[in-house]
Amino acid sequence: MTPSPQTLPQHFLVRVGQYADGKVALRQKEYGIWREFTWQESYEQVRDFALGLLALGFGRGDRVATIGDNDRQYLWGYLGVLCLGGVQVGLFTDANANEAAYIIDHSDARFVLAQDQEQCDKLLDIREQIPQVERVIYWDERGLWNYDDPWLISYVDVQALGRELLAQEPERFEREVALGKGDDLALLCYTSGTTGLPKGAMIAQFNLVESSQIFAAVDPRLDTDNHISLLPLGWIAEHVLGVAPHVIYGLVINFPEAPETVRENVRELAPQSILYNSRLWDALLGSVQVRMNEANWLNRQLYRWFLPVGYGRAERSLAGQTVGPGLRTAYALGDLLLFQPLRDKLGFTNLRAAYTGGAALSPDAMRFFHALGINLKQIYGSTEVTGGATIHRDGEIKFASVGRPAPGIPIRISAEGEIQIGGPTVFQGYYKNSQATAAALLEDEEGRWFCTGDAGYIDEDGHLIYLDRVKDMLTLSNGERFSPQFIEGRLKFSPYIRDVMAVGGESRAFVTALVIIDYDNVSNWAERRAIPYTTFTDLSQRQPVIDLVRAAVEGVNESLPPAGRVRRFVLMHKEFDADEAEMTRSRKLRRGFLQERYGEIIEAMYRGEEKIHVAAQVRYQDGSEGMSETDVRIVSLN
Questions:
Q1: Residue 1 pLDDT exceeds 70
Q2: How many CB atoms lie within 10 A of CB 596?
Q3: Strand stretches in 459-579, DSSP E
Q4: Does residue 508 belong to any structural domain of this protein?
Q5: 491 and 446, same structural domain?
Q6: For 79-130, what is each residue's pLDDT tens digit?
Q7: What average pLDDT does range 8-17 have in this prediction?
Q8: N-terminal to C-terminal alpha carbon distance within the chain
């Protein structure tokens, strides 16, 4: 009797056997054409690459760091590593040299799978910092033809070595896959490092399989589904909702032509499910609002008439209330004239479920997309629990919650208000960091728990309400507590606000905020009104722009308790920048660093000043850069 598959590679071989009739496994768009590859073709690519690694001396448990955009070679290389019992270490494509050097060195990677000349040049620059790396394997040869360094080897040359080994040992690949066990380490997935150096979360094969199956129990995955692989494999979400369901359920995985063409490619394929992080959903919301503001008179009127209808239907449906015939008829007309065309423009015509993960999406944004007829669900979790721990069910969506615990995932709240998660998706610990592992994992008579560091509570319907990081919940001088992240999420609902950091604390009597304008949307708004400006800094300090953002802040304040209302804010003279360590690559704020860097601005707000003089590097409209000194105005609210 054939044993049940325990690992992703074993599931992959089952799918290959099942779809021997030539079913499409994946697509990639190149030069404007979608190229298709069958499961058999994928099998041969994975097999040849894996055997090539063996020929280079790869051993079970070895680590391979991978860096590049999601595409078919990345997927085949990733699966090839796992087929040999190896460990994939995903890096973000835009990781700078120091970030890449730390993760590659810390993970003890023997090989690096890199996309192109840009990544190879980065690795050559840090070669002395990663002495354990034996070979760098690149798959896009453009620009690398004249490189003469034995440290670099092409993907096709590795596969050629694999075919030589295949001729000598035709059963070797299947034997290697069969050796896999559920508790084999599969991934070292590095956390974002908001408060220090990134930590390598150890994710086992069974963690990946369990997590994928748990979420498929809520939203079934079909082998006719299209998945768009657009989230970086340095983030756990694409592993769990992309790669794992591909090999377990046989869904078709699709790779966009380029990061810049993602929205166009999504519209072409119209997937059945999609996962965007909260930043992408916010950007999408902003683009819809701006597009409708700039539309012709008729479309603006349709938007003004039917959006309240969409809100009304969504509110009643999700509250379990009956949608009356009048509202039902009005929505059907709105769907025909407005909502359906909008969904088509977004590529969501076949969508059964849409997901948001990472930082919490504001209730206002959730409500907006449901008004458009988009079944958007919040997922809450982390790398340490192999992606998600909670999810909204159809018909049980609460805008203020992150859903109920996923099937088989126990969640509890500690006496200190911390969310703790148990179950089969909890990770194995942090690589080479026993102290952090001991702090994160708790074992007691009820089981093994990951201590998230997040504050929250479970409501009367069993939904988890996420508040903020425990350490980021702030107490004002009057004893009132508030959540900066909740305020930030509400403010970012405005298409004219890109980022926000709310500030408060025990020595503070009220809440203030550092606000970053959305340059693209605000500049379009200003140009339509003939408001002159030269730079980001200049635009941010124009009185009409200040009034525009003031109205957004005042609108959010009306929905907040008095203790959480923003009393003073500034429009910052520059954007928060991951390259300057102000935020992580996944756009989470590094609050401590930001409060220190912009301490003078923050103190000026609390001193009651009307402006503060700052110096900043600026980017002009022609792309040139320079230094500019300016007065940043401080806005007071009632």
A1: no
A2: 10
A3: 464-469, 474-475, 481-482, 497-503, 511-517, 566-571
A4: yes
A5: no
A6: 999 999 999 999 999 888 999 999 999 999 999 999 999 999 999 999 999 9
A7: 97
A8: 74
Identify the band that residue 623 occupies on the pLDDT scale cut at 50, 70 and 90. Answer: low
Which percentage of the chain shows pLDDT scores above 90? 67
For the whole model, what pTM was predicted?
Answer: 0.78
- Look up the CATH number of the domain holding residue 632: 3.30.300.30
**447 in the same domain as 569:** no
- The Cβ of residue 558 has, within 10 Å, a number of other Cβ atoms equal to 7
Residues 452, 278: Cα–Cα separation, whole Å: 19
Give yes or no: residues 90 and 235 share one domain: yes
Nearest-angstrom CA–CA distance, 426 and 406: 13
Higher pLDDT, 63 or 299: 63
Of residues 490 and 268, which shows the higher confidence score? 268
81 with 148, same domain: the answer is yes
Same domain, 442 and 496: no
Same domain? 591 vs 619: yes
3-state secondary structure 345-362: HHCCCCCCEEEEECCCCC
**The token pair that represents 93 in the structure block:** 């494509």
**8 Å CB contact between 339 and 361:** no
Nearest CA to 273 out of 219, 309, 223, 333 is that of 219
Is residue 359 scored above 70 in pLDDT?
Answer: no
Does 94 share its domain with 240? yes
For 538, the token pair is 């200049």
Q: Which two tokens stand for residue 113?
A: 């799978």
What is residue 201's predicted lDDT score, i.e. its pLDDT? 97
Residues 489 and 461 in one domain: no
As a dihedral over the C-alpha atoms of residue 536, residue 538, residue 543, residue 547, rounded to 10 degrees, the angle is: 10
21 with 39: CB under 8 angstroms?
no
Encode pLDDT of 310-330 as tens digits. Answer: 988 988 887 778 888 999 999
How far is CA 1 from each of CA 4, 20, 478, 597, rounded to the nearest angstrom? 9, 21, 69, 64
Residue 620 lies in a domain: yes
Pairing of strands 464-469, 566-571: unpaired
The total number of structural domains in the chain stands at 3
- How many angstroms separate the CA atoms of 571 and 541, rounded? 7
Q: How many CB atoms lie within 10 A of CB 360?
A: 23
Tokens read off for 89: 């270490």
Contact 581, 500 (CB under 8 A): no
- Return d(Cα 129, Cα 262) in angstroms, integer: 35
Give the residue, 260 or 609, on which the prediction is more confident.
609
Query: How far is residue 10's CA from residue 116's CA, in Å, rounded to a whole number?
Result: 30
Residue 513, helix vs strand vs coil: strand
Of 469, 499, 516, the domain-final residue: 469
Phi-psi region of 72 (alpha: psi -120 to 50; beta: other; left: phi over 0): alpha
Q: Per the structure block, which two tokens stand in for 117?
A: 């000349």
Choose the weakest-confidence range: 41-50, 269-278, 391-400.
391-400
Burial tier of 57 (Cβ tally within 10 Å: 0-12, 13-18, 19+): exposed
Last residue of a domain, one of 402, 434, 469: 469
Q: What is the torsional sign of CA 592, 593, 594, 596?
A: positive
